[in-house]
Structure formats: structure tokens, C-alpha cells
């Protein structure tokens, strides 16, 4: 190979190397941005469980930029459409920051004909947090691929019209544990 041929091939190889590096960098940046957006939660740092400085956010329309989960089919073995303590229901639960709501499973702590106190259930792994406990999911959600986590923080009061579908009953051992927590209202 002559010197002239080497001069022609060198820039072509260099161009390919630069193109590959740019493609890898763009993919990394996209993945990093997507991960930050999907794991962002107001007031917390993703994956750490700690708090971060809260920045005020302008109000958004109900449910804007947040995925909504469809309620599961109604449990046909149930005759009453009123939530009862120890039951798991799909309900329209507001976000803590007040920016909207999401249909999600929740555990009913106390209920009457107008409203109920509930704890939220999430499918996100919260095993590193003291304020969440693992909850068996397959009994009330046969499509679940893994167990979920029950938030043991302050309960949320929902009006009776927020409840969409009965999902099932809470695991008996977990229900006893929840009822023994002094900061939570029980029937």
C-alpha cells in the first residue's frame, strides 16, 4: 500500500470512529435523561430514599405527564361495593404534591359510607426504606410479576366515589402488623 492510499483511508477510519463515539454518547445521554425523568419524585432523590431541596412547581392539569393505570376487573365473588378494613381496592389516589392523581391499589384501614382512610401500594422496589413493607401481590393481582410495597406513612382519606374496583384482601399476617401500628387509624 502506497503512502497516498494510507492518507485516503486514514480519514475514512477516523470519521467512522467519531461517528461511533457520537452515537454511543447520544445513547448514553438519552438513557440518562430518560432514567432521571422516570424516577423523579418531588422531594426525594431517586434510589436514595433521602430528601432533596424542594423546588416549587407550577400546577399541572390533573394527571398531566403521569401514566395512569387501568383498574383491574371487578371481583365477582364480592356482593358489596363499599370498601371495608383489610381490603385492597383500586382507587383514584391523589399525588402528594397535589398535581393530579393515579388509579392505584390501596389498603383500606377504616371506612364508612362517605369516605375511607387508605395506605398506598406501589410496585416500585422500596425494600431499602423503613416506611414501606413488602406486600404479597399475587393473591389480589394475578398479573403481577413481583410483590409490591405498602406505604406505612400517613394514611390518605378518599371519598367513596374514588374507589374503582375491589381487588382482594390483605394478607392476614400483614393486616395484623398494620393494625398494631399506633400512628395508623384502625376500625
Description:
The protein has helices at 3-39, 172-179, and strands spanning 87-94, 101-111, 115-122, 132-135, 148-151, 156-159, 163-169. By secondary structure, it is an alpha+beta fold. Strands 1, 2, 3, 4, 5, 6 and 7 form a seven-stranded antiparallel sheet that branches. Residues 38-66 and 73-79 have low confidence and may be disordered.
Strand content: 15-25%
> What's the end-to-end separation, in Å?
88 Å
**Structural class per helix/strand content?**
alpha+beta
Oligomer: single chain
Name some characteristics of this structure.
7-stranded antiparallel sheet, 2 helices, 187 residues, alpha+beta, single chain
Brief characterization of the structure:
By secondary structure, this protein is α+β, with helices and mostly antiparallel strands.
Question: Topology, please?
Answer:
Elements: H1 3-39, E1 87-94, E2 101-111, E3 115-122, E4 132-135, E5 148-151, E6 156-159, E7 163-169, H2 172-179
Antiparallel strand pairs: 1-2, 1-7, 2-3, 3-5, 3-6, 4-5
Amino acid at each position: 500500500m502506497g503512502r497516498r492510499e494510507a492518507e485516503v483511508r486514514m480519514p475514512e477510519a477516523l470519521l467512522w470512529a467519531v461517528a461511533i463515539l457520537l452515537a454511543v454518547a447520544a445513547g448514553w445521554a438519552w438513557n440518562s435523561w430518560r432514567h432521571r425523568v422516570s424516577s423523579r419524585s418531588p422531594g426525594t432523590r431517586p434510589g436514595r430514599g433521602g430528601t432533596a431541596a424542594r423546588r416549587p412547581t407550577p400546577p399541572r392539569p390533573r394527571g398531566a405527564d403521569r401514566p395512569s393505570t387501568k383498574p383491574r376487573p371487578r371481583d365477582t365473588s364480592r356482593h358489596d361495593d363499599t370498601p371495608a378494613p383489610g381490603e385492597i381496592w383500586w382507587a383514584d389516589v391523589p399525588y402528594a404534591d397535589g398535581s393530579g392523581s393515579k388509579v392505584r391499589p390501596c389498603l383500606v384501614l377504616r371506612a364508612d359510607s362517605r369516605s375511607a382512610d387508605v395506605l398506598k401500594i406501589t410496585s416500585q422496589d422500596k425494600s431499602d426504606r423503613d416506611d414501606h413493607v413488602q406486600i404479597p401481590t399475587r393473591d389480589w393481582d394475578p398479573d403481577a410479576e413481583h410483590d409490591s410495597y405498602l406505604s406505612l406513612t400517613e394514611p390518605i382519606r378518599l371519598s367513596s366515589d374514588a374507589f374503582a374496583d375491589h381487588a382482594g384482601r390483605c394478607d392476614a399476617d400483614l393486616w395484623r402488623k398494620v393494625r398494631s401500628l399506633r400512628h395508623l387509624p384502625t376500625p
